[in-house]
Amino acid sequence: MTEPEAPKNIDEVTAGDVLKLIKSWRARSGDDKMAPRSIYTAYSTVCAFFRDAAIEGLISTTPCMLTKRQLGPKVDA
Predict the structure, then answer these.
(1) Can you tell me whether residue 4 is helix, strand or coil?
(2) CA separation (Å) from 68 to 4, 9, 50, 65?
(3) What is the model's pTM?
(4) Residue 76 has pLDDT above 60, yes or no
């Protein structure tokens, strides 16, 4: 088992970190499995968080720049 990553400040989060989060959601199985639309919904919430942080001047740019290629298909489970 790998060690969990140390927490990051909001201005240290990269697009790679967001992609890693999405991949972890897609890799869930069993009772923790997330439906594709749920992944899109959760990602849109993360995007709103970072957009608002950018508007407030807490970060210079949002790390949320993923496309369908990274998010996967948007289909009902």
Answers:
(1) coil
(2) 27, 27, 19, 10
(3) 0.85
(4) yes
